[in-house]
Design a protein that fits this description.
By secondary structure, the protein is mostly helical. Helices cover 73% and strands 3% of the residues. The protein is globular and about 55 Å long.
Length: 234
C-alpha cells in the first residue's frame, strides 16, 4: 500500500463510515491499493486514524460492489482484475454507450453540444498534462455528457450504476501513456460524429474505443499472470 497517498479527506456532510468507504474505494480504483492486496482492519484503522468499525463497514460495502473479495482464513483482499470480469463489464459498457451515442446523434440540443465540446477540450487539455487522474476525470465527464445528450433517463441510470466498475478499467487503460494520443483522437471522432449526426460512424467509434481498451488491459493481465507463473516456478 502506498501509505503516503492513502489519506482520509474529511467531509463535514458525510458520516465517517462513508468518508472511509470513499477513501478505500478511490484507493482501489486508482491502483493505490493493488489487486490481491490484503485489507487488514487494524493496519487501515491506524493508517487512516479511525476505529476499526468504519473500516469494517467500508469493506463490506466494497465487497457488494465487487471491488473486494473475502478469502477464507485470509480476510478481505482487493479483487483481482480478471479476464472474465473485464469482458463482462466492457460488453455491457459497449452496448449502453453505443445506444447512448446513437440517440445523442438524434437528440442532442445546442446546449448539450456546447457542453460536449467543453468536455472534449478538457480531455485534450488533461492528455497534454499527462496527469492520469485528470485524464480519467475528464474522460468520465465526456462520456457522461454523451449519455446525458441521449435524453434517456433510464439509460443514464444504468450507465451510472456500472460507473465504478467501468472506472477501474478506464483508469488501468489511461495509465498507459502510449495510448494517450489514441484516446484523444477517439474522443475527437466521437464528438465529430455526433455533430455530423452520423449514427453509424458514432457507434463504430465507440466500439473501437472500448475494444482498444479491452485489448490493452487484456494484454496487461496476461503479462502479469505470466510474470507470476515465472516467479512461482523459480
Amino acid at each position: 500500500m502506498k501509505e503516503e497517498n492513502l489519506q482520509v479527506n474529511m467531509d463535514e456532510f458525510l458520516p465517517l463510515r462513508d468518508v472511509v468507504f470513499k477513501t478505500l474505494r478511490k484507493g482501489i480504483l486508482t491502483g493505490e491499493l493493488k489487486p490481491g492486496e490484503r485489507l487488514m482492519e487494524i493496519h487501515l484503522a491506524k493508517r487512516l486514524g479511525v476505529s476499526r468499525t468504519p473500516i469494517r463497514e467500508a469493506i463490506r460495502k466494497l465487497e457488494l460492489e465487487g471491488l473486494v473479495t473475502m478469502i477464507p482464513r485470509r480476510g478481505a483482499e482487493v479483487a483481482n482484475i480478471t479476464e472474465k470480469n473485464l469482458q463482462d463489464v466492457l460488453e455491457v459498457r459497449q452496448a449502453l454507450e453505443s445506444l447512448a451515442i446513437e440517440l445523442a446523434c438524434e437528440r442532442i440540443t445546442e446546449e448539450k453540444k456546447q457542453e460536449l465540446e467543453k468536455r472534449l477540450c478538457q480531455v485534450e487539455t488533461a492528455v497534454h498534462t499527462g496527469d492520469t487522474g485528470a485524464i480519467a476525470s475528464a474522460d468520465v465527464a465526456f462520456h457522461d455528457a454523451i449519455v446525458e445528450a441521449s435524453g434517456n433517463v433510464r439509460l443514464t441510470q444504468l450507465v451510472s450504476n456500472l460507473g465504478e466498475q467501468m472506472y477501474r478499467y478506464r483508469f488501468e487503460y489511461i495509465k498507459d501513456v502510449s495510448k494517450h494520443p489514441q484516446i484523444m483522437q477517439e474522443h475527437r471522432m466521437m464528438f465529430e460524429s455526433i455533430m455530423e449526426k452520423d449514427k453509424r460512424k458514432a457507434a463504430q467509434t465507440v466500439k473501437t474505443h472500448i475494444d482498444n481498451q479491452e485489448e490493452a488491459i487484456m494484454r496487461k493481465i496476461k503479462k502479469e499472470h505470466g510474470v507470476e507463473k515465472m516467479a512461482a516456478a523459480e
